[in-house]
Design a protein that fits this description.
2 copies of one chain form a homodimer. Chain A is an alpha/beta fold. Helices cover 40% and strands 17% of the residues of chain A. In chain A, strands 2-10-9-8-7-3-4 form a 7-stranded mixed beta sheet, sandwiched between helices. The termini of chain A are far apart.
Chain lengths: 384, 384
């Protein structure tokens, strides 16, 4: 195993989850997924496809029907996008890896806005790039982007800027003005933007309604921009491993090759499920987002009421990110919470040193009562 | 898109297939898959899993049950292998990409035995390695490994030797003596072997019966050896994207990380299909191999009888690789065969310059009569 792989930290979230192995009494909120099963109408599409015998190799870039459906969906939310700009991938993380392979080679400079899901910074490292971390800044419980710091960090030597908004774990979400400022700057430096926007439909902001601000609202079709998406969060399809990339048209042939060399294609029966999801997206996704808002609202005031907790309302995403006074070691705290309170949270350190001292709570749940029970366990633990 | 990606050749097989778009009269034998649907008992396992709601994230390295089943399967064919040495991957090609990421970095030297499926040489190129091609040698229609040339090509500077046996496209298959010579040499140079053995069960040799010789027959558990496998060929599961890697135990944690950063996991319902396949492997695979032998035997004598054709019996795999006298440009010939004979074959040049002048015919078919009809079309074309 190459040293660079050995040096990548293992998942601290899994380390906490492993500490709970064999215990059925732990309320787990550590992973970024709901406990709700994929809707029937999506599963049924896959079952029909299997029954019809769709078990063969398929197009590298995805079924034309699915690419068209994703293009229509994207165009309905943002500026118009053609199917030629859509590449179907074997999950969102796979889409990110393909984006990195397309852009990043040995010695390239990459800037990542952090704290962030660790996969985003591990991928360029695997490909031999140098990753500079640009920290969001916590003000009370809320996180903010320092645009001046970003303009200083992203130079003509910067090959790629990686940014995830709505952000996992902090909930920070780009404003339109910040978006425009970042794109304007990256145009001057010639820097590619890889934007992980998988949480765009889980957005609690007012004016935009049911979709977070996106680079795709205003970027030109040939801007140096790759937007990465997934069916996982908006359609309760975490286990299906289906995602997509929106790219400039000129990259279509390159992504076909990269997909061939990475996974060749997504299973057709999984893509049929994606087509079914797209066909009923507006009947399903806003309702899910509304239920997730209720989850957030069940949890947030209970955390905010705890005197030692610092927390703010997330703009989007599935997570509440908070800190507990006097608790600097988030991994140790998360393990104690499992052992002593039966509460499973993700340690902020899993998202980089910038998240140290914080905890991430995934509030996606079928039953908001689970969140209430979890908050009570935390309260009892803190009163110990 | 990075220049190195732009420079990778697109698939010449797809180029031929694209030339047939919109034509329903072409008998296609260009892709490496059967026209037979995945068996019912395998599809049913996936359907059951979906009905039970197994739509969530799963273990990076695969369900423990599947890893155990693959370990038992491997141990029944070769030397004993523990489940800790098995990593479940999102297809065979994904397994190969993970193997390359584990071993190969910028500037590393890689030797690949060719002609070969082009993905095997594209992957290290994407990662910045230098790839040296070591050619099998054609003697009449048969291909042979030059062991002396291999010993010269693989030096202490060689990080990885890539070898695919039974070989796609030539049908060449390692003998046990060759296997041992190669491993012995690589031990002295400290070179890792990445062995693509996905066709091991499609083997027509006598003594070994229903499994081709494998490095796993005699290698030590901690040899520098990664063996890559797939459910695609042995179980008619091309479209499912499920494979695995057999590695030394010490690489387990590293592969868990790499899988996390590439696709995170294979879908659970796809893994359930894999478990079902493994449970009935010996009731299914030998029968499939026998039917494929009948396919080969339907095709081969008909090709051999054509005066301008040079061909030999493949030792294993799904392909007959042959050349036509006076036809040096395999891509042009393959396109003419589509246009003028309604016959779809893969051009040898798709597998590197060493395959130029040859054609690959995938003989995996439900109905051997399709092969007979195809051979008649070729015969008619050559008599033109």
């Amino acid at each position: 195993m190459r040293q660079i792989i050995e040096d990548l930290p293992g998942s601290k979230i899994r380390e906490v989850a492993n500490a709970a192995l064999g215990r059925s009494d732990v309320l787990a909120f550590w992973f970024g997924e709901s406990d709700e099963t994929t809707p029937d109408f999506i599963r049924e599409a896959a079952v029909r496809s299997l029954a019809e015998g769709e078990t063969f190799y398929s197009h590298n870039l995805g079924l034309p029907e699915l690419r068209e459906a994703i293009a229509r969906y994207t165009s309905s939310l943002h500026r118009p996008v053609s199917a030629a700009r859509i590449a179907v991938t074997s999950s969102g993380v796979n889409a990110l890896m393909l984006a990195m392979q397309a852009l990043v080679g040995p010695g390239d400079e990459v800037v990542a806005v952090v704290p962030v899901w660790p996969n985003l910074t591990a991928q360029p490292a695997i490909l031999g790039a140098r990753v500079t971390r640009l920290a969001l800044r916590a003000e009370g419980g809320a996180w903010r982007l320092d645009l001046d710091a970003l303009r200083k960090a992203v130079t003509p030597q910067t090959r790629v800027l990686i940014v995830n908004s709505p952000n996992n774990p902090t909930g920070w979400t780009f404003t339109r003005a910040e978006h425009e400022a970042v794109l304007t700057h990256c145009r001057t430096t010639g820097t590619w933007i890889v934007a992980d926007e998988v949480y765009e439909r889980i957005y609690f902001g007012g004016a935009q309604g049911i979709c977070a601000p996106s680079f795709l609202d205003f970027a030109e079709p040939d801007d140096r921009l790759l937007v990465v998406h997934s069916f996982s969060k908006s359609f309760l399809m975490t286990g299906w491993r289906l995602g997509w990339i929106v790219s400039p048209r000129a990259l279509e042939a390159g992504f076909a090759k990269l997909i061939e060399f990475n996974t060749s294609c997504a299973p057709v029966f999984v893509q049929r499920a994606g087509i079914a999801a797209m066909a009923r997206s507006e009947a399903f996704v806003p309702g899910l987002a509304q239920r997730l808002r209720l989850c957030r609202d069940a949890l947030l005031p209970r955390l905010a009421a705890l005197p030692s907790v610092t927390v703010a309302e997330p703009d989007g995403g599935l997570y509440v990110f908070f800190r507990v006074q006097g608790q600097a070691d988030s991994l140790a705290l998360a393990k104690r919470l499992v052992a002593e309170a039966g509460l499973g949270l993700a340690p902020g350190a899993a998202f980089g040193s910038e998240g140290e001292g914080w905890l991430r709570w995934c509030f996606a749940s079928r039953d908001p009562e689970r969140l209430v029970e979890g908050a009570e366990r935390l309260a009892a633990f803190l009163r110990l």
